[in-house]
Amino acid sequence: MNAEIICIGTEILLGDILNSNSQYLALELARLGIPHYYQTVVGDNLNRIHSIIKTALERSSILIFTGGLGPTPDDLTTEAIASYFQTTMVEDREIIEDIKQKFASRGREMTANNYKQALIPQGALVLPNKTGTAPGIMWEKDSKLILTFPGVPSEMKQMWQDTAIPFLKSKGWGKEIIYSEMLRFRGIGESSLAQKVNHLFDLANPTVAPYASHGEVRLRVSTKAQSAEEAKKIIQPIAEEIKIIAGQDYFGSDEDTLALVVGNLLKQRGETLAVAESCTGGGLGAMVTDIEGSSEYFVGGVIAYSNEVKMNLLGVSEDDLAREGAVSAIVAEQMARGVRQRFGTDWGIGITGIAGPGGGTESKPVGLVYIGIASATGEVWSYRDTYGSSRGRYLVRYLSACNALDQLRRKLLG
Amino acid sequence: MNAEIICIGTEILLGDILNSNSQYLALELARLGIPHYYQTVVGDNLNRIHSIIKTALERSSILIFTGGLGPTPDDLTTEAIASYFQTTMVEDREIIEDIKQKFASRGREMTANNYKQALIPQGALVLPNKTGTAPGIMWEKDSKLILTFPGVPSEMKQMWQDTAIPFLKSKGWGKEIIYSEMLRFRGIGESSLAQKVNHLFDLANPTVAPYASHGEVRLRVSTKAQSAEEAKKIIQPIAEEIKIIAGQDYFGSDEDTLALVVGNLLKQRGETLAVAESCTGGGLGAMVTDIEGSSEYFVGGVIAYSNEVKMNLLGVSEDDLAREGAVSAIVAEQMARGVRQRFGTDWGIGITGIAGPGGGTESKPVGLVYIGIASATGEVWSYRDTYGSSRGRYLVRYLSACNALDQLRRKLLG
């Protein structure tokens, strides 16, 4: 028994979109212990989809399709599956009602095109789509298992979690699971961390593997086990050892983001935060408020893109701006202090930098960023980062916001 | 004649890495006008690679492999290709010299493992790798064309550009290119737009195909031609027809984002913008400042997460807040007007809503968002959107910011 992931969409073949669905599903199949040997991509073409189904049925027993469930004529997945198996399509009343309701809740009317999304092969179960209009199917046919999902990643993921996983578990999968803890680090490079934990890379069970991306290093500690509890027992001693070795450079595991970790620390201490942003333009505030319930500790902020706003709303000194420039330690500190005072919070963060690609000089190159942190005790700290011009505007802004949160995290940890 | 992209690597099947090589090669094939109908991923397993080669040869005439060219025993690509065609492998002296030199320049000695990287099928040409130790091959065999590349994206890309493109052009490719314009729309659903342009979906040249994602609908108008100029001539009349049909719902093409389009309109008019954000928490400001040079028209903003900030910094009326609630048309309008006045800009945007998942009530459910737009003439408008609780916090925030920009865009267009 093995699964094959089949993504349908001419836009993938044209290179318009990155096929991230396959990676998500691959990870999920591994978690359930379902072997998976092949992935295929094919365009919106009936004959070619038929040929792909034929090949996949010869070598795989679980076929997982994504894409091609939309309302337009080029969306062919369900039709292609039904016609390959020479099965009649039947209209599902519940799907029609659901689509009608979704249109109504957005003040629109269901179009004639959408009726085709309610057609499913006779004998198949509906795999409901909470957010979009395209439901999938779960179909046991000729000893094979067929699942379809829309191509929109957020819809596919929710449907996978809510319905496909319970369904696959009911079929006996997921008894032996691959379980892992992804430990996450900031402020240390991949090779430095690797040197510190080198003795763990040769372990057979659990295994330890490093990953790096965008200023963050990760170590994945994995094992196979009958249950999550059993797996945790195998993983925990090694994960603990790594956390002790890494100290404050370890900031969280799995879904823990910096914003979540900082938010939890603020909540524990009953403290509040405000932010003053220049080069990040609101990105730090957006990161902080990405966390549900962040209004408990986040009061607000000032996007101080112009010098006037820095002076008028944050009390940055005109003299210091003229002498040191907007991108300087003293301005970052005054922004942090100013926003903390104006918003009456325990903590204030200031960020000022040159995101590029223009605006750099020899002494202040693109990628130079200053971060200020102000506390209720009246103390203020600043940090200088240089990300280099080659990182690009997006990464300079993203990494600045991350680093600001990381510096606050270290202050909160004491 | 059509190409198939075959990626070899168990790490892709485990979900450890995202298959970005396929997207890169897909775009490059489109540029050269090489049709491409299938992509396949398979693990490091000789039998399964053989079965993939067999299937690919039946349906494709150019096989492009990435991955599996390393020095370790699990790297099987070249060996699998040679054994499939029952062709002897021969040691290439130049490759050995090249690998030796690369090791020497790093102060190391070539390992025994690396000799295997110098083995290529008899009759194949070497596709040299400037940076890494893994060369590829270019092989014309049985009227098929076989190319192999390492899985490391930077090495693959350089080899593609330096050697594969000239080789493919020498075989007659690249004379005809696939060219397209991606038209982008907001404020209209995929099925409604499809109904309006339904008569264009059957065109043979150019072709028109719809895509939808996250509140945006796209129509791709594509053609094959000898040059970009010729392609534009074929595409333009249809693209123009669609733009006229869609009116202001069309906002831009290809890389045009809402933030870029709004920024360009503001620049043309010499006008400025400030934003006041509650539920988006800085996300709108981040979107606006994502555009290089946005300081020309963007002055800054207030992240007004708490009611106190709405009152103290933006002048929102305490009475209205108490009577109508923070998520109301009047508060959105006052936020827009308040931030415009305080920052002295031509335009002000206010956003207030319930991003969820908590905080919703029967009369004000999760996903309810009000947008206010204030202009220098003293006028102020507001818009009510309901995204539904099922969209999730991320999408409610993202779509609110997009819609705010879209409403401003429509005002700027008049």
Compute the gyration radius of chain A: what is it?
A: 26 Å
> If helices are DSSP runs of H or I spanning 4 or more residues, what is the number of helices of chain A?
14
Q: Indicate the CATH class of the largest domain in chain A.
A: Alpha Beta
Give the rounded overall mean pLDDT of chain A.
93
How would you describe the oligomerization state of the chains in this entry? homodimer
Which overall shape of chain A is indicated by the principal axes computed on the Cα atoms? globular
Per CATH, the superfamily of the largest domain in chain A is MoaB/Mog-like domain
Uncertain regions spanning at least 5 consecutive residues of chain A: none
What fraction of residues of chain A sit in β-strands?
A: 25-35%
CATH topology of the largest domain in chain A: Molybdenum Cofactor Biosythetic Enzyme, Chain A
Between the first and last Cα atoms of chain A, what is the distance in angstroms?
A: 52 Å
- Which CATH architecture of the largest domain in chain A? 3-Layer(aba) Sandwich
Structure description:
With 414 residues, chain A is of the alpha/beta class. Chain A folds into three domains: 3-170, Molybdenum Cofactor Biosythetic Enzyme, Chain A (3-Layer(aba) Sandwich), CATH 3.40.980; 177-253, Alpha-Beta Plaits (2-Layer Sandwich); 258-413, Maf protein. In chain A, 40% of the residues lie in helices and 25% in strands. Chain A contains 14 helices and 17 strands. The first copy, chain A, has helices spanning 10-13, 20-32, 46-59, 77-84, 93-105, 153-170, 190-196, 228-246, 258-269, 283-289, 307-314, 318-324, 329-343, 393-413, and strands at 3-8, 36-42, 62-66, 89-91, 119-121, 125-127, 136-141, 144-149, 177-186, 207-213, 216-225, 250-253, 273-277, 298-304, 347-353, 368-375, 380-386. In chain A, the strands form four sheets. The first copy, chain A, has a six-stranded mixed beta sheet, with helices on both faces. A five-stranded mixed beta sheet of chain A has the order 14-13-15-16-17, sandwiched between helices. In chain A, strand 16 (368-375) and strand 17 form a beta hairpin. Chain A is globular. Chains A and B meet through helix 1, helix 2, strand 2, helix 3 and helix 10 of A and helix 2, strand 2, helix 3, strand 9 and helix 7 of B. Chains A, B: Belongs to the CinA family. Chains A, B: This is CinA-like protein. Chains A, B: It comes from Cyanobacterium stanieri (strain ATCC 29140 / PCC 7202). Chains A, B: Residues 4-171 form the MoaB/Mog domain.
